[in-house]
Design brief:
The chain is of the alpha+beta class. The protein is built from 10 helices and 12 strands. A hairpin with a 6-residue loop joins strand 11 and strand 12.
Length: 256
């Protein structure tokens, strides 16, 4: 179990950042996965009093505060209309409503967990993270960076002309995914994110030309590395991913 020596609710991001530079200190998100770990935290840093639990929509983007819950994503009409329900689909299998009322968007993205449905789905969009010191960074770059002591403040989804679908395969309804795929048609390009490989999500692309869905899915899947764990072998995951990607491409081809 996690042991916490002291608890602080900073009045500013600068104060939170300074506290977070000590390795023994830790920022609290929803604490849904942290509490399953072990160790000692010298100071727990709570960002819940900074107004970072709102979703703001403009004509150009959605700005999602790091303390927004997965349940807020699930219920937000604007985001789900823009993504045709893909964001709602990516969170609805995550344990249950009680869990989604506590798990945060910031924790899901900053953690870069291999099993993260949220990271996989957002990676298939024109998405960015706003870091307190690091500024605004494309999510596709942030995923590849090493974890540091910066603070993720907002997640930004830029509105562009794209169609997106999200799909996952699970052994049971609320289990971690065996494989997860975000499939987007963005202009003349297919952008596909594959998560639960079981490594963290990766983004691959192919030109949207005259090839059929099966050919494109084959090429996309060949770009992804898969691994083994208790939920499935690399061969099984690759076969699943190929089928799931093909089906979503076929569906999007009918819409576009």
């Amino acid at each position: 179990m996690i042991t916490i020596n002291s608890y602080v609710k900073p009045e500013s991001l600068e104060e939170a950042y300074e506290l977070n530079q000590k390795r023994a200190n830790r920022i609290l998100g929803g604490m849904m996965w942290m509490r399953l770990g072990s160790g000692r935290v010298q100071t727990a840093i709570d960002l819940s009093g900074m107004g970072l639990d709102q979703i703001e929509e403009s004509e150009e983007e959605f700005k999602i505060g790091c303390m927004c819950t997965l349940r807020q994503l699930e219920l937000h009409k604007g985001i789900n209309q823009y993504t045709d329900g893909a964001v709602r689909e990516c969170v609805r299998h995550i344990v249950g409503v009680q869990f989604r009322n506590q798990a945060t968007v910031g924790g899901s993205i900053f953690g870069r967990f291999g099993f993260s449905d949220v990271l996989t789905c957002f990676l298939a969009m024109d998405c960015y993270v706003e870091l307190y010191k690091g500024g605004i960074v494309p999510l596709r770059e942030f995923v590849c960076q090493k974890r540091d002591r910066d603070i993720l403040v907002n997640v930004i989804i830029r509105k562009d002309v794209r169609k997106i679908r999200y799909v996952s395969s699970r052994r049971t309804k609320t289990d971690f995914p065996v494989i997860a795929c975000g499939v987007a048609k963005a202009g003349e390009e297919w952008q596909v994110s594959v998560g639960a490989r079981p490594m963290k999500a990766v983004l691959v692309t192919e030109k949207a030309d005259g090839r059929n869905a099966a050919e494109i899915a084959e090429k996309l899947t060949e770009q992804v590395t898969f691994g083994n764990n208790m939920r499935g072998s690399s061969e099984y995951r690759k076969a699943l991913a190929k089928v799931l990607i093909r089906r979503q491409i076929e569906a999007l081809m009918e819409e576009c």
